[in-house]
Amino acid sequence: MKRLVPLLFVTVGVLVSCSTDIDLYADYKQVPIVYGLLDAYADTNFIKITRAFYVEGDANQVAANPDSSNYPGKLDVRLVEFCNGDSIREIILDTITLHNKQPGVFYHPDQKLYYTTASLKDNTSKKHYTYQLKAVLPDRILETKADMVGNSAFSTQSLGVNFSKEYFDAVPRKFLFNPAVNGALYQVSMSFTFLEQRTPDADSVPRTMTWNIGTFSEDYLSWHMDGECYVFPYRPESFYETLIEFLGADTCVAGLCRYIEDFPVEVTIVAGGDNLRQYIYYNNTASGFNPGDNEFSLIDDSYGVFSSRMTTKGKVRLAGETVPELVANRNWGFKFIGGR
After folding, report:
1. CA 231 centroid distance within chain
2. CA angle 200, 207, 312 (to 5 degrees)
3. What span, in angstroms and rounded, lies between the C-alpha atoms of 319 and 267?
4. From the CA atom positions of the chain, what is the Rg in Å?
5. Which of 72, 202, 244, 275 has the fewest CB atoms found within 10 Å of its own CB?
6. Which of 311, 307, 280, 309 is nearest to 34 (CA)?
7. For residues 299 and 302, what is the distance between their CA atoms, to the nearest angstrom?
8. Angle at alpha carbon of residue 108, lines to 103 and 113, rounded to 5°
């Protein structure tokens, strides 16, 4: 996910009556904000719990103060693990302060998060795991659940990708992968790694170019299946467009060599749960929704998102005429060395 920030409610006017003063804050109630994506394969899972605030005057000045967004002290925050509907254990979360938040509207560089290093469970053919977030707030107990995404079967299936120029402006190429249990949204990227030697007597160093293929809903993928596999499309043109931008002025350098090995492309697929899909879809103006509409919430009496995700990666070959075409462009200096 991108940088996590709390929602901000701002009063933009003052109501005045000739006979009665209206207290805008008389019925003020703190609104919790939650951001958390659980990952069974992560060493550490983080959850951010803050609060929205009302403010008179300059909201930017108030947002720069951590006390405006943070709950005071340390909350009692737990994850309750359920397996096939039965409560198995409780995991107590601790607090940690991260010190690398980039400057922005909200306070930085320090951010208070809740975390656990406890091992979370992914699904199996016989066991379905759900985690309930339980946070004791000053005025209520916040509870929300997330089904875990994925299992060991979530994996790439295609053995190669084909960026041959014969497929330019044609029907997109197809890549196959096994679905993730409870996966509702899939984000796909590819990376191309090669060894670069600047001069004949220099050491070769790896360089990696990464580009985004797209984000696909489970609804879309379920209509584009090949047997039991989901299929996402990719265009060979995107590979070359990204490569030209990535190499930039490094082309045409005398003595420069770039070496391609057997499996130079890595495909990364991140599967997200349904709560994450709804959150992203709703906050996307292209979908026709109004971001930040305070009538929409995935968490009772709160805002934000609590869901899960899982990542699978697969090393694949450059298929078809891709390697010969790269080598044929002498300006780029590519050479194929296989798996030496």
Report:
1. 20
2. 145
3. 14
4. 25
5. 72
6. 307
7. 5
8. 130
**Which tokens go with 294?**
């305070």
Q: What is the model's pLDDT at position 29?
A: 64
323's enclosing H/E stretch is helix 322-328
> Could you give the CA distance from residue 234 to residue 290 in angstroms, rounded to a whole number?
30
CA distances in angstroms from 68 to 52, 116, 174, 270, 322, listed in the order given: 8, 25, 49, 34, 55
The helix (H) or strand (E) run that includes residue 96 is strand 94-98
Q: Write the CA distances from 141 to 5, 133, 136, 186, integer angstroms.
A: 22, 10, 5, 32
Q: What is the DSSP string of 142-167?
A: EEEEEEPP-BTT--B--SEE---GGG
Question: Cα separation of 286 and 77, whole Å?
Answer: 35
Coil, strand or helix: which one is 10? coil
Which of 329, 323, 6, 320 is CA-nearest to residue 167? 320
Q: Give the amino acid at 294.
A: N
Sign of the Cα torsion 243, 246, 251, 255 reads: negative
Element (H, E) at 46: strand 45-51
Q: Which residue has the tokens 């992968």?
A: 177
Residue 294: Cβ within 10 Å count = 11
For residues 241 and 163, give the distance between their C-alpha atoms in angstroms, rounded to a whole number: 11
Tens digit of pLDDT for each residue in 4-22? 333 332 222 222 233 334 3
Please confirm whether the linkage preceding 109 is cis (ω < 30° from 0). yes
In the chain, count H helices and then E strands. 6, 18
Would you say 108 and 65 are in contact if contact means Cβ atoms under 8 Å apart?
A: no
Q: Encoding tokens for residue 335?
A: 């050479």
Q: How far is CA 21 from CA 25, 54, 225, in A?
A: 12, 18, 63
**Minimal CA–CA distance to 179: which of 143, 223, 213, 146?**
223
**Domain extents in the chain:** 1-148, 160-269+314-338
Over residues 166-205, the pLDDT tens digits come to 999 999 999 999 999 999 999 999 999 999 998 888 899 9
3-state helix, strand, coil in the chain (%, to 5): 15, 40, 45
